[in-house]
Model the fold of this input.
Amino acid sequence: MQPKPYKNSKRNVELIALLALPILFFGCGGGADSVHEPSASIDEWIEQFQPSALSKVEQHAELEWFAQAAAPYRGMEIKSVAEGIKTHQWESDVLAKAFYDITGIKVTHDIIGEGEIVDRIQRQIQTNRKLYDIYVNDADLIGTHLRLDSALNLSEYIKGDGKAVTNPMLDLDDFLNLEFGQDYEGNQLQLPDQQFANLYWFRYDWFNRDDLKAEFKSKFGYELGVPLNWQAYGDIAAFFTGRTIDGQTVYGHMDYGKKSPSLGWRFTDAWLSMAGVGDKGLPNGLPVDEWGIRVENSIPVGASVTRGGAANGPAAVYALTKYVDWMKSYAPPFAASMTWSEAGPVPSRGNIAQRVFQYITWLSDDAFTAPESPVTDSDGKPLWRIAPSPHGKYWDEGMKVGYQDAGSWTILKNSVIGKEREAAWLWAQFCVSKTVCLKKFMEGKTPIRKSTVNSDYLASREGDFGGLITFYKSSVENQWTDSGPNVPHYPLLAEQWWQNIAPAVTGEVTPQEAMDNIASAMDERMGKLEGKMKRFSPKLNPETSAQDWLDKPGSPKAERPDEKGETMAYDELIKVWQSQ
Done:
């Protein structure tokens, strides 16, 4: 569904920039206290905000607009919060200072753990006591926000009460994946601030060695290349594991398995979609999504196969089985005792051949990009590449392929009102403005705008990013999506995953038992939510025979035979992307 809010087409940007200057000086009210002369500071910040997708004239106009629009709020202090990735650290260290210099509004931009953010946003919703004026909250919570009616409807706000503080150069059409933060009706409840995908990562230099290619072809009967399905990924993992390359023992896979909340992300961040658990449909399958939750008329009706869900069906069990088997057979022995944050940089050590599930945020670290890194050449160019994630045997054309995180600006409407709301909205827009977005990408590699990834600056530097820019410019990028609106209460349901996956990692339960426990736990929690949410509360289907549902078309899906391995040369894959 397309967004309904205020729009500006690209062709209007230059006109807005030229017209903005006289309006800024004569169109804003306020007495002597609101007089502000930011031009010198603006000029200095423009130099720091290079490169930019805008010309310096356009940047000046946009920053002048912020300076004048903020006149009634000078001297205010607001608080925002985001998780600890480089993008948000740069916002805290650099953009907050720039915003204060230009607008006179002081921002404390706290950087805390993602789990803490979820805890605090829940507390603020439950108590209506303000902890923060605005959150960078994952769009994974969109299903929660729309059902609790907790987030400010930005579509209505920027056309109504917030019109005077809405940047005329905001250009919502320029954003990537706005739909992640929209409700079922297409209202924008959350605005992207950063996003990053889980993609396939591999050693491009090794995959192009003639001796290794010939040996792989002889052993498996097809070419060594980017795996298009899980069978090929497993074959490649087996091929590289235990081999000695450049004096190191190589592993064909990397993962993590320590019992912690991050183990839940490993699965809820769309691992089951890669296996093919859900139905066709973008951004999320309908009526069954990638968590295995069936939704009918926007109402969640069950996760268990006996209720029409798929969280414990053959595809979900297959997904967990492959995860456990690959980690035991092909990953370093310490992988199972690692968390997300510990495992992320491991491929940069130079002894990992591929990783099926790599959060691209790690690829901005010096460990992956510095000239002295084991995974760059003498010029600092990556020896690795990223490519689309391979999919499992239950995946069908038309489904999402993987996960994309979208940390999104979210204002809780019942506890943030009046000037605090307006100042917070100005701050959020500043952080996503075209003036700063390209520079912000260079700092954190988490793009949110089409004008960033299509900029002339990045066009000449695509080789520096191992395929990241090519991915975001391709037509397949929209197949990597967030958790979507079908998850009725993200915090409550997400915690069921890591607690029940961990025993499967250690062998205490089978994959089938683990997924049965997850499906049952989600059904139990959704049952308790029945009638207790403001919109679209869960209402569970009565249980019937699992086979009744497996015999029907779509998800949940009956057992399927194994596939044959299939690969594609990376350079050919790039040509396909570019042609699309």
